[in-house]
Amino acid sequence: MSWHLYTKGFHDYLKIERGMSLNSVMAYMRDVGKLEEYASIAGWKTLPTAIEPIHIQQMMAYLTEIGIAGKSIARVLSGIKAFFKYLCLENLRTTDPAELLEPPTMSYKLPEVLSIVEVEAIVSQTDMSRLDGARNRAMLEVLYSCGLRVSELIGMKISNLYLDIGFVKVLGKGSKERFVPIGKSASKFLTMYLEHTRPELPAKPESGNIVFISRLGKSLSRQMVFLNIQALALKANIKKTISPHTFRHTFATHLLEGGADLRAIQQMLGHESIATTEIYTHMDNEYLRQTLIDFHPRS
């Protein structure tokens, strides 16, 4: 048997016996699909009937590692629990590997994640008539569209922008470069900044190839980006604790909730895992770009 036969039976059970709506059924199927995806990523040759608690725990740790919000992990775990209850009900398993597993606790909590409405509220606070306002809008759009670390954002180079094909190249941890797809909204505001705003800023020789610079023409610091985002969040009357990393977690969470492939999310984030590094070296960049287009709220 294959995973498909088990998940098809679960689909029919939810739809026919439980009488769930199409949206609810699809939500549960996405949750179980994440477990199947992770099984492939981790290289398990394991059917649902042989899954153990440690397998599900490893998946939850993986979701945390790539920046998924605790609430979203709890949602995925809920769907997985329902799946294994079904398998036990149908006598396809004698034990439930998810029965005793708990969702992430508060001590395991990740940084805040913004809703789409909150993202819109923050970015709309930028004053596009000001040089720093146009720059900040472009920065926020890029942070949210590409899921970058703040160090990757402030170190981004003009020569590494390939907006005509929808990609930017960034320098991540360990001085490893990767290509990240960029959405239409971010590309639009970044182009506006580069064509109309940045030429007005007196770039210093050492920052001539840096994308985002200050009004004095210097490279931005992490603290400057942090303070700008906090000020905009305050203007938007958002009470959550927000930092540049909040946009990275929001990016990952919104893609996951939209149904994006776990492997694509990890590749875009530049997160490496011993169990998955090799498989990611063979991912196709066009596939990553299409994933962003299909699942990102602002693409």
Question: How would you characterize this protein structure?
Answer:
It contains 13 helices and three strands; from the N terminus they run αααααααβββαααααα. It is mainly alpha-helical and 299 residues long. The protein folds into two domains: 3-108, Orthogonal Bundle (DNA polymerase, domain 1), CATH 1.10.150.130; 116-295, Intergrase catalytic core (hpI Integrase, Chain A). Strands 1-2-3 form a three-stranded antiparallel β-sheet. Helix 6 (131-146) crosses helix 10.
- Helical content stands at 40-55%
| Strand fraction | under 5%
Strand order within the widest sheet? 1-2-3
Question: Uncertain runs with pLDDT below 50, 5 residues or more?
Answer: 274-283
Write the layout of secondary structure elements.
Blueprint: H1 3-17, H2 22-41, H3 53-65, H4 70-89, H5 116-123, H6 131-146, H7 150-154, E1 161-162, E2 167-171, E3 177-181, H8 184-197, H9 222-235, H10 244-258, H11 262-269, H12 277-280, H13 285-295
Antiparallel strand pairs: 1-2, 2-3
